Amino acid sequence: MALTGIEIFKMLPKTNCKECGFPTCLAFAMALASGKAELAACPYVSEEVREKLAEASAPPIRPVKIGMKEGEKVIGGELVMFRHEKTFFNPPLIAGLLTTAMSDADVDAQIDAFNKMQYERVGLMLRPEMFAVKDMGDAGKFAALAKKVADKSDAAIMLMSDNVDAMKAAAEAVKDRKPLLYAATAANADGMGALAKELGLPLAAKADGYDALAELTTKLTGLGLKDLVLDSGARTIKQAFQDQVVIRRAALGPKFRPFGFPTVTFPCEMTDDPMKEVLYAATFISKYGGIVVLSSLEPHRVFPLLLQRLNIYTDPQKPMIVTPGIYPINNPDENSPICITTNFALTYFIVSGEIEGSKVPTWLLIMDTEGLSVMTAWAAGKFVGDAVGMFVKKCGITDKAKNRTLIIPGYAAAISGDLEEELPDWKILIGPREASHIPAFLKAQ
Ligand code: SF4
Questions:
Q1: DSSP for 127-176?
Q2: Gap from CA of 24 to ligand 1 centroid (Å)
Q3: What's the gap in Å between 55 CA and the centre of ligand 1?
Q4: What pLDDT score was predicted for residue 2?
């Protein structure tokens, strides 16, 4: 049973030393009770109290680690229903399905596609992370397929079988990868639970309906298992979506421990329509899948999901920024045009992409506006004539280029007068408002 903030406060040292990052022990106790702080932040809690508080201070949704070749991925560990309340921490893993019924050529093609599927955006590498390896009734093939995936890719692995013996053979073949075992059911819970415990691996629990799922996870935690992943069994988008919301709400609100685990979702089993499958996957990336399994990994289906996931799992309270400075694009020389914009990462990403696509050699100046976009920075007084002028003088572009024409964003047209006064040797050109018009604009210069 979770403790209240006041109950936790009574057990703290009450010295208000602030070392935990909170102004008082009471504030720390309240944050601990709501899952917004960790007990380890207070170094003065006695061992006895630490044990008592362990339950109260445990995260409402347990972070579960699943291994990759290098390191591990964490799912779960979320503290809020909506990202604007705080942020979401651990992006869902995007998985491709491989079955023992697939031909070797198809399996090789999927592994090859997985290995090549990497996209760099805003300084981050986006990619799917997992393969779901499914047993279709042949234990030998199942273990061999799991081993092949482990040998030929760095993917996290989810092993899917109802058969405890088949699961044991496959899990032992790839146990160094720390795969997720899927799934314990009411029928095999003892065997699967014992196997997961013996090998120290995370285990998925699958049951139809909330009561059955709660009963199953209670049984598994009673066996000593801590790292569980939930499957509510629903295979229609409506029910599965509802289940995600109910499970998240139950875990965060009343701190219903049997649902305090991340979930796994299967858009691949909900439709035969590839486009619908992507839409369903997008639904679970938004709310609240811990793993999203697709029937296959193809760039045109995975890429939009990676971008969606990137957007949802960035901290809404911290703007994404790029380093201010001079960015040469398409090998510019001293006569190449010079553009300027803000260091909001998405602005940089879109503008630099359009310039690159134009093939026009260009200098792109990125000014520090604390991550604000052009219009917001202008409204906040951070992208105004004197500030931009000062940056252009100091950034070093005059050492690299003889050209003295500065192209400013169309949305910042209002600063052109002030900028001309600040940079009397420069010609100020107002660029397009829409980034998509940049290539035509540059070619016309
Ligand atoms: Fe209180 Fe511990 Fe925080 Fe110090 S570190 S203010 S003793 S809770």
A1: ---EEEEE-SS-HHHHHHHHHHHHHH---EEEEE-S-HHHHHHHHHHTGG
A2: 7
A3: 19
A4: 62
